[in-house]
């Protein structure tokens, strides 16, 4: 069978929150990380580090923090209606899978935690240069994260980009023995999916783009 092309992978790379209870070989994790690190980064600094958490106790502790954050977030969002174009049914399906993940995060065989390393320390102070540098550094992890998600999809692994653990950033940094100049940027459960990969549905291009100045139709 022909390998799926890049567009097919992009169009069928949904957030997967349901995983089968089957191990993922280290060789595959290395393969998807090797795709992640091909991503661009500001000044090509590659100031990243990827923690691959397979230890069951650490995974369970992370799930505990994630669940606490999720419960706070879910209670805040409970009365927010779905955005225009998203049906109540679709919204309910997303909420159901998010609740499931909060309760079962530790059952994903692998949790990958991409970190940023601030080689020269964090950028302090206000100003256009500091603002730009901060945005550039923080933005530098997400191309790698997207590469990782797409690479997982390409080899048949499911994954879900999450950030809720950041409500417990300090405790988690301690748990993972992070150096002072490292920050966790996401937490990505990875495993063999027991849900469908796609297709991904989004608000159409014409509704989220303009030509030359904001609001002029493309
Ligand atoms: C920055 C960011 C943070 C996210 N954080 C979470 C999260 O904490 N928990 C979660 O279940 N999904 C999280 N998601 C996944 C989104 O909910 C998901 O990508 C979106 O609903 C689209 O899902 P679909 O690709 O299956 O249509 C996050 C996505 C992004 C880009």
Structure description:
The protein is 40% helix and 11% strand. The chain contains 7 helices and 5 strands, in the order ααβααβααβαββ. Strands 1, 2, 3, 4 and 5 form a 5-stranded antiparallel sheet that branches. Helix 2 (26-36) crosses helix 6 (142-154) and helix 3 (56-77) packs antiparallel against helix 4 (88-104). It is globular, with a radius of gyration of 18 Å. The mean pLDDT is 93. Bound molecules: flavin mononucleotide. Flavin mononucleotide (FMN) binds at residues 14-15, 17, 94, 98, 101, 160-164, 200. Flavin mononucleotide is lined by residues 14-15, 17, 94, 98, 101, 160-164, 200.
Gross morphology: globular
Q: What compounds sit in this structure?
A: flavin mononucleotide
Helical coverage, percent range: 40-55%
* pLDDT < 50 runs, ≥5 residues: none
- Based on DSSP secondary structure assignment, what is the total number of beta strands? 5
Oligomer: single chain
Structural class estimated from helices and strands: alpha+beta
Q: Roughly how many Å apart are the termini? A: 38 Å
Q: SSE order in H/E notation?
A: HHEHHEHHEHEE
The average pLDDT is: 93
The fraction of residues assigned to DSSP E strands is 5-15%
Total helices: the number is: 7
Query: What is the C-alpha radius of gyration, as a whole number of Å?
Result: 18 Å
Largest sheet: 5 strands, antiparallel
């Amino acid at each position: 069978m022909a390998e799926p092309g890049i567009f097919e992978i992009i169009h069928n790379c949904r957030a997967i929150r349901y995983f089968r209870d089957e191990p993922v070989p280290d060789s595959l994790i290395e393969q998807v990380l090797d795709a992640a690190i091909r991503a661009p980064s500001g000044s090509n600094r590659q100031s990243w580090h990827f923690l691959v958490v397979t230890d069951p106790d650490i995974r369970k502790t992370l799930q505990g923090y994630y669940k606490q954050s999720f419960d706070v977030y879910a209670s805040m969002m409970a009365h927010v209606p779905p955005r225009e174009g998203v049906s109540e049914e679709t919204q309910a399906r997303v909420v159901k899978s998010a609740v499931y993940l909060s309760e079962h995060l530790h059952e994903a065989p692998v949790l990958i935690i991409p970190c940023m390393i601030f080689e020269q320390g964090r950028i302090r102070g206000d100003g256009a240069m500091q603002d730009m540098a901060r945005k550039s550094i923080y933005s530098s992890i997400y191309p790698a994260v997207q590469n990782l998600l797409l690479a997982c999809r390409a080899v048949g692994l499911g994954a879900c980009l999450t950030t809720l653990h950041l409500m417990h950033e300090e405790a988690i940094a301690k748990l993972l023995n992070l150096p002072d100049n490292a920050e966790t940027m996401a937490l990505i459960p990875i495993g063999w999916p027991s849900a469908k990969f796609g297709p991904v549905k989004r608000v159409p291009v014409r509704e989220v783009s303009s030509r030359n100045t904001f609001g002029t139709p493309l």
